[in-house]
Amino acid sequence: MPLRDLADAALAQAKSLGAQHADFRAERIRGQHIGLSDGHPQTASDADDTGLAVRVIVDGTWGFASAVDLTTDAAALAARQAIEVAKVAAAMNTEPIELAPEPAYGDVTWVSAYEIDPFTVSVADKVALLAQWSNILLAHPAVSHVDASLQQVRECKFYSDGATTATQQRVRLQPALTAVAISDDGMFDTMRTLAPPVGRGYEFLTSTRLRDGTGWDFEAELAELPDLLAAKLQAPTVEPGHYDLVIDPSNLWLAIHESIGHATELDRALGYEAAYAGTSFATLDKLGSLRYGSGVMHVTGDRTTEHALATIGYDDEGVAGQSWDLITDGILSGYQLDRRMALLKGFGRSNGCAFSDGPGHMPLQRMANVSLQPAPGGPSTEDLIAGVNNGIYILGDKSWSIDMQRYNFQFTGQRFVKIKNGRLAGQLRDVAYQATTTDFWGSMEAVGGPQTYVLGGAFNCGKGQPGQVAPVSHGCPAVLMRGVRILNTA
Amino acid sequence: MTTASGYSVQETVERALAAARSDDCVVIAVETSSANLRWAGNTLTTNGVSASRQLTVIAINRHGHGPKDASAGVVSRAGVRPDQIEDVVRQAERAAAEATPAEDADELAGPEQPGSFGMGNKETGGIAGRDQAGSFGLGNKETGGIAGRDQAGSFGMKNRDEPGWDSPPGRTEIGVLRDFAATLGETLRAAQAAGRKLYGFAEHELTSTFLGTSSGVRQRHDQPTGRVELNAKSADLERSAWAGEATRDFTDVDVAGLAAGLAERLDWAKRTISLPAGRYETLLPPTAVSDLLTYLYWSAGAKEAAEGRTVFSKPGGGTRIGERLSAQPVTLSSDPRATGLACAPFVIAHASGPDSSVFDNGLPLSATSWISEGSLAALISSRHSAEVAGLPVTPAIDNLTFATSAAAPPALEDMIASTGRALLLTCLWYIREVDPQTLLLTGLTRDGVYLVEDGEVVGAVNNFRFNESPVGMLGRLLEVGATVPTLPREWGDYFNRAAMPPVRVEGFNMSSVSQAS
Prior knowledge:
Chain A is of the alpha+beta class.
């Protein structure tokens, strides 16, 4: 059944029942997760989520319904259900819904940049690769256990609102290996690979040098990880206090995600997430005036960066992908928008941040790729470390938590290396850094150059009720922060 | 009832089993329907109804050296049409053929297990309740929109309320929220007139799971899951209060009552008191207790404990089973038949994991005490991980109760009245693990921290970031109140069925002040 026929049936039904706006999505999201414990398969699941969704505006009120069967009857029924939902919900609605205009793009297609669809590779080959990598770690006497996992997603979306009909496909994967060391006295610790999730195909796992000149050398990382873990287990516990920090992109991406990415979502700033994910200290009245951080801070939002996880041709409201500034020279200069909020608050046009994680959910304003820009010609990581007398170099993300207005946060990491007189001086244990967002970014003395820039990210950013997950990337250079509070977590 | 694709869900299970060429096969068919409303700033924001249908086929190849020598392949697909059933089975069989032997391989549960419909086999399927098909129309005020709740029959060990194998899957729809929406609309307008803003979410979901195996199991479970969350804020957004309830059918939700309780809490907050970080005697309400103990429960896996990787590992080897964690006579337990918290009484495993196994599908679940009278009594396990850890088989169960056996435990109001000086929390938020060795967690207080002095709430305190271990907290319980149903604020998306008491904790560690309000 051509998806266009389903869209036509749904949109015609909605219009005939009085909808002022209607849009239709059909999606198939294939996911596969493989997990190994100590080199042996422990988990293997291969699932998909297929269905259609109809969203309407009736007399200024949203209505949404989804169905699993891809038939014209199911599409028309979903349209009728969406109308009924709007009528039930009208009793609660006091703000008429209107959408910012967006050009009509006609029939368009978009496919993300990848070479090998991971679903064309056999599970046996993937298990063999993860087992091989696990065994590299297990061969070291310090390693007691190894967990290995590989998540892969192929997301196919069809969208139509009558003016734009977009057919899109993208692929992403996330590999991770974690080594566990246990000492004779029962102490244990872990260390995970720093390889990021990527909007690439299986080639990311098998080639250390990709066509664009980038790539991840897994075997090199795995070769050094056991010794690093052994040293971590023997490392002295940190003395709490305030330290200068050099933060690697493998850790900093998460601080960006939590303290900038979510804080510059306009739906949060307006209170739409107040009862759940929370609001934002970066309220709309502060646009153009809030000093978010130091003058070296330039943060962008985009849905266009190649291989980034939030990149897409057209969002779930038919808005074309864009890039824009969120923080310019340390000052709040933009938000992430969808079509409703863009019109409501006078932005004119949405910047394309509507996303639904599947056919069963209504699109929300979700996070774009939010990235801290490097300094052209800026310093290397070694240069940044050289500028610290008493500090800590932090690599890899681990625990994270931030309050509901994005003020107070606490992060840990995979590795913490003491910096003494500009040189690395061995690992530390039990480190967490805790700060208030604007204090933290205000303490950023320097950002590294493009040579330090890495695209990190997550598969599973959570938001909304019903809960939805979204993939998102965050690029950043290494940075130097002055005087950040360090806790001892032991 | 048949689906839009022409087959009933039971026929889908039987046809998949009939198509199987592997030595053994497990088929899980899940039909889910849901309806939701969301509001913010006294007006609707999003809403929706959705339906999904998922078929999972687990193909098992036996290799001839006993029940523990087998490989499994798992494939799940949504919206499977009749002509696609065999293809899904073949995909699972290909996955099994590619797979290396499974560590958790075992015999499948048989139809004689308590709770199964029994007597079924690959050819005939289950026979119980074949004529139990009923009317599954749209919901109304009486039924709460949960179709099939009155389809009680005599199905062996099944609960009387549970529909039979052959009954159509239950469904919910937007009608279950119709009366709620009308009352909520009035409540929102009243809040607007009173200068308060209300935010929140209401959702009802009904999941019907049908499990069939080549060993003759035919099990079915209908799970209603509902919740309402209400957050009230002052007009300047400086004061905030929250309340939440789990519900199975929305007939027991009093949204106006919830709003009135929140208005009282906003009044408490008209006087504000700044307190620094530090350790405080703290009264945790049931929702906050549920969030901390749910995390403890999720961390109580047998396999990793036996491997020396969790807070429940004994230094030098083994687990801490039998070790006293609290001086209070408290019990943390799960029971699939707990009143008001009922959940699936048999194992449903779509994939294997450290402490779950696809080979365990259909195993009966019975009441399990994880902590008994203050001592660690059991860890979550599959048959495989139980064997590895040398422990009894105690699979995960989808509810959790924490209670004291002390006589006449007090209500939260009584605990407040008997307080000299302590913090009273509303709920916790953004809880994350910091150190698995101690199960140290961090997170925030949210939507109301109050100072209690001489038996009365004297004002609202700033929010805090906490760093606490729920295991360590058990050792510092000063008082445990009466257990009541509650909704975990943080984990309610995934874990909805809990009954918890309020507790008084000595020296709860508030590690820094949060500016959030």
